[in-house]
Amino acid sequence: MQQGDAGRVCIDGRMLGPGGTGVSTYARGLRAALPLAGYEPLVLAETAGWLERKGWPGLARARRWIDAARPGARRAERVGGNPAISAPEIFRIAQLFFDVHRRLLPIRTSQPPGIMHWTYPVPLRVEGWINVYTVHDAIPLTAPGLSPIDPRRHARLLDRIAASAGAIVTVSAAAKAEIIAATGWSDGFVTDCSQAVLPLTPAPTLPAGVERGRYFLFCGSIEPRKNVEALVSAYRASGAGIPLLLAGPDGWRADRIARQIGYGPDVRRLDYLDQDALAGLIAGARALLFPSLAEGFGLPVAEAMALGTPVMTSGTGALAETAGGAALLVDPADTDGMARAIARLAGDDALCRDLRARGLARAGAFTVDRFAARLAPFYAGLRAKGGAR
């Protein structure tokens, strides 16, 4: 593919760090897929403001509010041979700018125009470029009780994004259908490109007191939509005889959930794990248990299948789609049904072998190569019709 003009794609760098969230993994997978799709990758990065560099965070916050009140575009440029364009505190100022002005913060750059692929609905746009926004799910609009995001602000933000975007991309057919139903956007405006599961390198050792193949694992943030309370109730009713490990950060309302669960020898909460240690924990589990109430994709399910770990997950929506017939599906509202499924996984070696084989085959749908193959025609269509706003 000829480079230059729209032959490159810029992504926002706010989610490219080492964190293990689904959006972070999406961003890293997108960056890895771009060259395979024929596009030169560029990153929009946020640099620290001078007050931050001086070590004055309180003054820096006040300065951001002052900056956000100023109308007009901000500039983002390359510095030397850096492969990124950058602007001071741009992502944080944009959120304040949207609250003040109720519109997206425009960015100008002297770089040749291309496609700006935002990895999340951020209140930013690059002038003269084709702006694409990834909307991972419609949960703040369809199930506001499961999300800390203000649904009214989120709806306003999505309205402004739609007015500026060349297209919206999402990560599953189920998410696409829910987004369209919640926003009224047209079918042609929203494209499901799925996402990539990056190759994982499991650490060779497990946490102290954990025996390979002798534990169940939940992997994800502790928050209401993950359905952890019901999972623990089902696990305790199953009589499984092996512990349930919960690995993931505290999320929204985690303290209340922890009080309801009551951690102990049977249900163990693990401290922070780096990416390789978490991959090792997934690979060593008897099965991953992930009966979430709402997801846009379900990254733990795809990662567990890629590592050869049997999966139990929800039988509707994006999770059933991601599982693709390679997981034991349950009704996340049926605690008794989940308990029976957990008991089966604990005692049926043949079932686990079958799920392992099917999961490994299904994981092939989420390689970086496959993601690039979906992105290439999507970007080509954008370039063919234009779309810079």
| Helix content range | 40-55%
Kindly report how far apart the N and C termini lie.
24 Å
Describe the strand arrangement of the main beta sheet, using strand numbers. Answer: 4-5-2-1-7-9-10-11
Instruction: Tell me the overall shape.
Output: globular
SS class: alpha/beta
How many β-strands, per DSSP? 17
Contiguous low-pLDDT stretches (5 residues minimum) are 1-6
CA radius of gyration is 22 Å
Task: Report the portion of residues in β strands.
Answer: 15-25%
What is the overall pLDDT average?
93
How can the largest sheet be summarized? 8 strands, mixed
Number of helices: 15
Task: List the SSEs and their pairings.
Blueprint: E1 8-12, H1 22-37, E2 40-47, H2 50-53, H3 57-69, E3 74-75, E4 77-78, E5 84-88, H4 90-101, E6 105-108, E7 115-118, E8 124-126, E9 130-134, H5 139-142, H6 151-164, E10 167-170, H7 173-183, E11 190-192, E12 216-219, H8 228-238, E13 244-247, H9 254-261, E14 267-269, H10 275-284, E15 287-290, H11 299-306, E16 311-314, H12 317-323, E17 328-330, H13 335-347, H14 349-363, H15 368-385
Parallel strand pairs: 1-2, 1-7, 2-5, 3-6, 6-8, 7-9, 9-10, 10-11, 12-13, 12-15, 13-14, 15-16, 16-17
Antiparallel strand pairs: 4-5
Helix pairs in contact: 1-15, 3-4, 8-13, 11-14
